[in-house]
Give the backbone structure.
Amino acid sequence: MFKLPDLPYAYDALEPYIDEATMRVHHLGHHQGYTNGLNAAIQGTSWEGKTIEEILSGISPEDTAIRNNGGGFYNHRLYWTIMSPQGGGKPQGALAQAIDRDFGSFDAFREQFKKAGLGRFGSGWVWLMNDGGKLYICSTPNQDNPLMSFAGCKGTPILGMDVWEHAYYLKHQNKRGNYIDDFFNVINWSQVEKNYEA
Ligand code: MN3
């Protein structure tokens, strides 16, 4: 049985960038729903007892219920940890060097990441991927996740940005670009650095 992970901060901790009402419904509504859906979808199947990573990397595109709910479970679990009320600013250390190397500069990375978010039509995610030390940006539709073999993103996601309207609509309405700018004010770069060095 998968359990909804606790938020590592209070619901209002990311104010004013991400509002309390959005965080509550996103965590207690959406993420709980994906968690319940995942548990229901794997019950009585050979996936029961497997890790979420094993499940996501093993399913096929036709496993719709696990694809949508398992992706939603993993994606949001990562998303909460890569935000922090002490977030924002820029990464340091090896990650900062890798971003400069692979994107030219932090500002160039931020511009490309925002562009990928604005370019995702409908619902989905934008990922900063680590492929054997090399960084690149990948985007997936709906709740697809880079670990899925058919997602087209090689490597491990170390940062994920939710661009579903439920992540920003209450505060930012249709202005996804404003949400992305605000998201950059709460990115927990020290966690992303740990994910990169893991
Ligand atoms: Mn979401």
